[in-house]
What we know:
There is one protein chain. This protein has 8 helices and 14 strands. The chain is of the alpha+beta class. The chain folds into 2 domains: 3-109, Gcn5-related N-acetyltransferase (GNAT) (Aminopeptidase), CATH 3.40.630; 142-310, Gcn5-related N-acetyltransferase (GNAT) (Aminopeptidase, 3-Layer(aba) Sandwich). A hairpin with a 2-residue loop joins strand 2 (54-59) and strand 3 (62-72). The longest helix has 18 residues, at 162-179. It is globular. It starts with a strand and ends with a strand.
Amino acid sequence: MNLSIRLLQSQEIETADRLFRLAFGTFVGLADPFQFAGDAAYIRHRYWTEPTGAFAAELDGQLMGSNLATNWGSFGFFGPLSVHPQLWNQGVAKQLIAAVCDRLEAWGIKQAGLFTFPNSAKHHALYQKFGFWPQYLTAVMAKSASPCEVNCDFLRYSLLRQSEQEQVLMASLELTHRIYPGLDLRKEIQAVSNLELGDTIFLLDDSKVVGLAVCHYGAGTEAGSNNCYVKFAAVLPEIHAVDRFAQLLNLCENMALTVGMSNLLAGVNTSRHEAYRYLIAIGFRTQITGVTMQKPNTPGYNRSDIFALDDWR
């Protein structure tokens, strides 16, 4: 088999997207695999956010697989990992994972993770070969958006002048560093803005950024039609964390309505027990459950004292 692993090219994004839907839709047993994920999208914006982290598997001139790495400073994750069903069980996934792991190492990532099917021993065994070990479940949850009372100061990245954007980006780095040393969402925030995927909310306390939420909304993003999806959110791990977490979620819910979305989506690792329980208490219900796997096998920022939202699909 004349297979090569190389960087994905921009003209291959649409093909990689169709391959992603075919692979995942086939695995979960959809009658029409190409309907997997609906009108949500994952490939295009992840490619343009970090082209050097997007890898392709080519066989006889045809794209037959892809894998994309995300760089959040000291933390990174990869996915979606897609292989054409015709090449399953032939070692293609291993080669795509190896390429991404090399890239994560080159970036200086200290903690790497992924999100996979919780009931697939095959997937778990594959990732364990590369040093990733299963930990807690992640619940991808949803609720209908309704107006919320807001008694706090906040900013929206899209409404700021460039100089103000630069200031809040630096403030975001200070916040995420408190969550996990070196964690950096600045590139993600800028990509959401530059690629028109959604917006980022900054929660303020006495003009200090104490929370942030990076959100996608609408078709062609990770949210999909009628959804506002919290890609990442966190508040400072301090005594007021619970109250600030509640305020931040209220801001997200109100923004969902402001931009014409009817649902709010968010992922939470169940190791962040209080954050998970709070989502349940305010009406979120689980739609998808996955298991996180990390390398090395340490908690990273999946800890009970952290009020953060994300999932690494």
